[in-house]
Design goal:
The chain is α/β, with parallel strands linked by helices and 323 residues long. The chain contains 11 helices and 12 strands. The chain has helices at 14-19, 25-35, 47-50, 59-70, 108-128, 156-169, 185-197, 235-245, 269-280, 297-306, 311-322; strands at 6-12, 40-44, 51-52, 55-56, 74-80, 102-103, 136-139, 153-154, 175-180, 206-212, 248-255, 290-295. An 8-stranded parallel beta barrel has the order 1-2-5-7-9-10-11-12, surrounded by 4 helices. A two-stranded antiparallel sheet has the order 3-4. Helix 8 (235-245) links the parallel strand 10 (206-212) and strand 11 (248-255). The longest helix has 21 residues, at 108-128.
Length: 323
C-alpha cells in the first residue's frame, strides 16, 4: 500500500522564540499548535537551563510541557545531555570544562553527563509520571557530526551508555538519534545494530531522524537526499536496512527558515513545495507515518502573532492546514 502523505510536525525552542522577539514563547507554541494545526512537537531540554548551581529544576520548561500534555500533542524530548538542537548545540553549564573533541565513556564530560541525565530522567518521571508513556526521547543531537560551538562528536560507546541510562528509566519508550543529512546515516545504523544486539532497545523502538537542509549559507548545495555521493549511505540502502531491522524514520529537521544569505526557506511557497516533495523520497513508499518536522516554525508563528504575514506566507499556511 502506497502512502505519499507527509505529516507535518516541528521542533520548538522557547529560547529561540525569545531570541527572535517573542515576549512569551508560549504564545508562539499555541499559534503553532492551534493556528497551524501541528501537534507532533519536539522540545529540547538544555542542560545549562535545567541545572543551575548544581541543582536541577524543570521550572523553565514546565509551562511548555504542561501545554503539550494537556493538548494531547505527540512529544519528542531532546534531553541531550550535551547536544540539544539550536545553536550553539552544546548547552553545557559554564562550570563544566570540555577538553575532548570526541566524547568517550572515559571523558570527564561523559561522567558529568551520565549523572545529569540520570537525575533529569528521575525528575521528569517524578513530575510528569505516566504522561511520559508515549513520549519519544532523543539522545544528543547530530551526535556524529562536528557542528556547534565546541565542534565535538560522540563515540558509539558513550551513546550506548546514555541509552542504557535512558532504558533504566523508560524501557518502553521510543528513542531517536539523528543524522546531519546522509553524512552520518551509516554511523546511526551501526549504533542501532549495537543497541539491538545488546538488548537495550528493540529496533522497533528506535527512530532514525534526518536533518535536511537544501540551502546552506554561502555554499552551493547538492540536494542531501537525491545527490550522488561515494562517501555517504544512499537512501535506497537506508531503506533496505530499515526493512531488515524495522526501525522508524522521520525528518527531524526540514529547512523552513532563512540561514545566512539564504532568505527564502520559510518565506517562499516554491521552497516549501520543494521541501515536501524531496522529503517524501526519504521514506519507503509504503511507510505509514511520514513525519517532517518543519525547522523554523517559531518564525512563521511570530509573523502570525504580529500580523505581519506576506502573501507567500499565507499560501504556505493554507497548504499546512490542508495536511
Amino acid at each position: 500500500m502506497l502512502n505519499n502523505t507527509i505529516v507535518l510536525g516541528t521542533s520548538f525552542s522557547p529560547e529561540y522564540a525569545k531570541y527572535i522577539g517573542s515576549r512569551d514563547p508560549l504564545d508562539l507554541l499555541k499559534v503553532i499548535n492551534r493556528d497551524l494545526g501541528i501537534d507532533d512537537i519536539r522540545l529540547g531540554l538544555r542542560w545549562n537551563v535545567v541545572q543551575k548551581d548544581k541543582e536541577i529544576s524543570l521550572d523553565f520548561y514546565d509551562k511548555y510541557l504542561e501545554y503539550l500534555f494537556k493538548n494531547n500533542c505527540k512529544v519528542c524530548l531532546n534531553v541531550g545531555p550535551i547536544k540539544v538542537f539550536r545553536w550553539p548545540e552544546d548547552h553545557i553549564p559554564k562550570d563544566i570544562e570540555v577538553k575532548e573533541s570526541i566524547v568517550t565513556p572515559d571523558s570527564d564530560i561523559a561522567k558529568y553527563s551520565y549523572e545529569y541525565l540520570d537525575n533529569l530522567l528521575t525528575l521528569l518521571k517524578q513530575k510528569y509520571g505516566n504522561r511520559l508513556d508515549d513520549v519519544m526521547f532523543q539522545l544528543e543531537n547530530e551526535a556524529f557530526f562536528k557542528f556547534g560551538r565546541l565542534r565535538i562528536t560522540m563515540s558509539k560507546e558513550y551513546l550506548l551508555s546514555l541509552t542504557e541510562i535512558l532504558r533504566s528509566h523508560f524501557p518502553n519508550n521510543r528513542v531517536m538519534f539523528n543524522s546531519a543529512g546522509r553524512k552520518n546515516l551509516k554511523s546511526v545504523v551501526e549504533l542501532f545494530k549495537d543497541i539491538s544486539d545488546k538488548g537495550i532497545y528493540t529496533p522497533q523502538s528506535l527512530v532514525l531522524g534526518f536533518n535536511y537542509y537544501f540551502k546552506l549559507p554561502n555554499i552551493p548545495t547538492k540536494d542531501p537526499i537525491t545527490s550522488f555521493s561515494l562517501l555517504s549511505m544512499s537512501i535506497k540502502k537506508l531503506h533496505r536496512y530499515q526493512k531488515e531491522m524495522g526501525f522508524g524514520l522521520e525528518i527531524s529537521e526540514g529547512q523552513f527558515e532563512p540561514w545566512g544569505k539564504q532568505k527564502t526557506p520559510g518565506n517562499s511557497y516554491s521552497d516549501y513545495e520543494y521541501l515536501l516533495e524531496k522529503c517524501k523520497r526519504y521514506f519507503p513508499n509504503d511507510y505509514q507515518y511520514k513525519l517532517l518536522r518543519l525547522w523554523g516554525t517559531e518564525e512563521l508563528a511570530l509573523k502570525i502573532f504580529k500580523d505581519t504575514l506576506e502573501d507567500e506566507h499565507k499560501r504556505i499556511i493554507a497548504s499546512i492546514l490542508e495536511k
